[in-house]
Amino acid sequence: xxxxxxxxxxxxxxxxxxxxxxxxxxxxxxxxxxxxxxxxxxxxxxxxxxxxxxxxxxxxxxxxxxxxxxxxxxxxxxxxxxxxxxxxxxxxxxxxxxxxxxxxxxxxxxxxxxxxxxxxxxxxxxxxxxxxxxxxxxxxxxxxxxxxxxxxxxxxxxxxxxxxxxxxxxxxxxxxxxxxxxxxxxxxxxxxxxxxxxxxxxxxxxxxxxxxxxxxxxxxxxxxxxxxxxxxxxxxxxxxxxxxxxxxxxxxxxxxxxxxxxxxxxxxxxxxxxxxxxxxxxxxxxxxxxxxxxxxxxxxxxxxxxxxxxxx
Amino acid sequence: xxxxxxxxxxxxxxxxxxxxxxxxxxxxxxxxxxxxxxxxxxxxxxxxxxxxxxxxxxxxxxxxxxxxxxxxxxxxxxxxxxxxxxxxxxxxxxxxxxxxxxxxxxxxxxxxxxxxxxxxxxxxxxxxxxxxxxxxxxxxxxxxxxxxxxxxxxxxxxxxxxxxxxxxxxxxxxxxxxxxxxxxxxxxxxxxxxxxxxxxxxxxxxxxxxxxxxxxxxxxxxxxxxxxxxxxxxxxxxxxxxxxxxxxxxxxxxxxxxxxxxxxxxxxxxxxxxxxxxxxx
Amino acid sequence: xxxxxxxxxxxxxxxxxxxxxxxxxxxxxxxxxxxxxxxxxxxxxxxxxxxxxxxxxxxxxxxxxxxxxxxxxxxxxxxxxxxxxxxxxxxxxxxxxxxxxxxxxxxxxxxxxxxxxxxxxxxxxxxxxxxxxxxxxxxxxxxxxxxxxxxxxxxxxxxxxxxxxxxxxxxxxxxxxxxxxxxxxxxxxxxxxxxxxxxxxxxxxxxxxxxxxxxxxxxxxxxxxxxxxxxxxxxxxxxxxxxxxxxxxx
Lengths: 312, 281, 250
Prior knowledge:
- The structure holds three protein chains of three kinds.
- Chain A is an all-alpha fold.
- Chain A has one domain (74-311): Orthogonal Bundle (MetI-like fold).
- Chain A is built from 13 helices and two strands, in the order αααββαααααααααα.
- Chain A has a two-stranded antiparallel ribbon with strand order 1-2.
- Chain A is flat and about 85 Å long.
- By secondary structure, chain B is mainly α.
- In chain B, 77% of the residues lie in helices and 1% in strands.
- By secondary structure, chain C is of the alpha/beta class.
- Chain C has a single domain (2-245), classed as Rossmann fold, CATH 3.40.50.
- Chain C has helices spanning 42-48, 79-85, 100-111, 116-129, 133-136, 149-161, 179-192, 205-211, 229-234, 239-245; strands spanning 2-13, 16-27, 31-35, 59-67, 70-71, 86-89, 167-171, 197-201, 214-219, 222-228.
- The longest helix of chain C is centred in the middle third of the chain and has 14 residues, at 116-129.
- Chains in contact: A-B, A-C, B-C.
- At the A-B interface, helix 1, helix 2, helix 4, helix 5 and helix 6 of A face helix 1, helix 3, helix 4, helix 5 and helix 6 of B.
């Protein structure tokens, strides 16, 4: 990068424009370092897949893929250990469904409120509060779930225990909300101003404009927001582990205990023998989880980028 | 039903949904502050835990979290800024660019417990770091990398192209231009992203559960190869794993954790608002 | 003698050809004006002379473009060395958000100059050359963004001059300025040609007539006509040139 001479008294131009032999080696070096840094994320994603598969695939030395994917019982430490993932998937799906059922209407409503109804001076404040909601550590929400929410659920539905799928769903909905709100809000904000003006000029009320013009026009973005919210909900670990009771069976209602894939990994990993069947099984659960979130994210990104193209 | 009435009802419902988000958030914060504030004392913050953690302070957990966060940012910041520089300043929009984009998108969506599995497999076992601050910091660094890349990229993109042109036209090299013009201008945005990333790392539990955290360790870590206690994991422990844990200790831990995350969040938000104002003026 | 000679220059943005077979000689220590309607390729052409178009993806340049006797598009040309010899001033004043001093010293510092006294000298010399010294000498450490538009543009000229370039490219340097600031810059350009070869893109024919020695008229990527300024404006050879300078053109 530096010229060869250190003590330069005056700027002098070499007559030749050619690069010298050792010319700007530093620049080339830096360019290569930056390229390496640039591909870090690709390397990390590859390593994540590699290391999950490396340990997860080993499970199938001990049991068959069918037993794992379709097995209805997760009894990892009984003498006749069984590693059926169905109850865990069912737990994750139930918690996520419940969370989405709660957070989608609230999230979209809140996004519309922020984008179209809120007075400008409280808009920023609302956005900060919602961002802070996403910053609250999930273990703190889980803690509140134990000390407050589970009691409320137990008393409200007169149950013997408040540690239910529903309790998990409510907490997870709090975590999915910021994602849904901020991405839907972006989608509505990205709409051309002309849409609003055209509709209002035709005599539509503000609400009619929102209902019949803005929300349909932003629908791709809102769908992507919901999908990313689902991805966030499936991956949530601590809060769910702390409040759903963790019974590894297929939940038949929202008011019974259930156990998710994430909670299973986090709770059981400490008790496993390195490279034992149970250890491999938890990595295999991780693979299933990773596959689900990867698919959701890729599809959501596809929907989002299509929405952006439509916007143009 | 007439138009005005319809609109009024609709807007009331929208306002109600907004309150359904805002009120619980405020209540959560208020409740933890209210219940936890009485526990916070100099002793609680700076003493070792005693009697099976039911007495004394949480000093090692605070220190553990601070070490973890420092280690995380030390790994994630150079990697993240470097990636962002590559994407905005060097990359051409070809296949590699798309691949990197896809990778960042995926990283952002990987569940935190999967990062934990990955860190366990790669750092703890394969590379032999053991359950340690080092393994935990590396795992968390991967987790916050997308946050840092995205924030840095946005900051770099906001640097006017005319600055780059002016610098290059003066015979500065590309790297000199980045170093002397682009990065200084993007710094507030990058710092904001870094702080948000730190806040995220400070609150994560699942990854450190598998890579670093010690259940109970009444001493400070001596090196980066040591296990350590950490606040989020400590909150999990005291609220689920220890019978007869006094309520006030639980709330105290929750408040300290929320406070640390809140401080990082407040700093990042303040920087962002300040520079938004400055850019408008 | 020609400082820069261009032969058979073609430039493409992807599939779109923006410059067609340009032949032009730029004389040393003269002011050459490039005129033409917007979108005619004059700015694009200017930016080929210090290879600023390299910054844009998918730009392809063909033909021969020589600074004295060296082809500047040769594979092993060091663009950094080229740009140090061929400076540039942009349409909108674009000082860095740094102090006035740091703006002028920016180029020499990147060149590797560390000696404070020498840098001081260069800053003073360049600001004097750009006729800005008297206005700013008491506030060299104040931000350059506090200057008026005209002052900012002269600072950008000083910043370019600090590198002692041989050629100075100016891309509509007065289009963002008021008439008084414009007059100052025009006067400055007339003085600078004693030491520098200047190529200026302008949308104002009056400006071209006032300050340039030679003028080249571009239209839709073609170089239509080039001649001594006085001749081109009084007796254009091409009908299209005549239409443009008499204002019968869009």
